[in-house]
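Sequence in, structure out. Go.
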Amino acid sequence: MTIVRSKICGITRVEDALAAVHAGADAIGLVFYPKSPRAVSLVQAQAIVRALPPFVTTVGLFVNKPRAELNALLAQIPLDVLQFHGDETPEDCSGHGRPWFKAVRVQAETDLLAQMQVYQEAQAILLDTFVAGQPGGTGQIFDWSLIPKHLPKPIILAGGLTADNVRQAIAEVQPYAVDVSGGVEHSKGIKDPEKMRAFIAQVRQTM
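Output:
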């Protein structure tokens, strides 16, 4: 039996983080990209991380953040994993003392095998929907048939997932984990506890 992990991204409030954990989320994502409506401040992030119980992975999402600024932030927040969503090179992603994964925005011409070779030190590759000018959080799905079978790295599937489509997504893609943000919200940055419970319940029914 394969266990598919779940990550709730774009958490901005302590109560939403705790509701995600109560629903069964394996990881929560904090967005450190100022242009995002789900961005958190240093103070917000510290409060959220402090409130979490053990064994919940904290993931920080970054978009082309300068290394000095990223390292200064990491000195103040004990994030577990880094998620790079911009145009970062493998060298930009490495050397922070944390495991990391790289987001790839998928379109018809995307060569995922080549991307995995480029980012071979990544712990996993996150697949999201390509929308010009948006590094993520589009709320749109992409064509899952573009994903080759038997890729050499774990896949984290994102992009427009909801409780209504996540079981189909898992059946077709067979990812290591799924990542949801807008699909479990009242409004951007404000999570809906019932939607989070429904989403994770659907994930667990695939086990």
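Check: The chain has a mean pLDDT of 94. The helical segments are 14-23, 42-51, 67-74, 90-93, 112-118, 166-173, 193-204.
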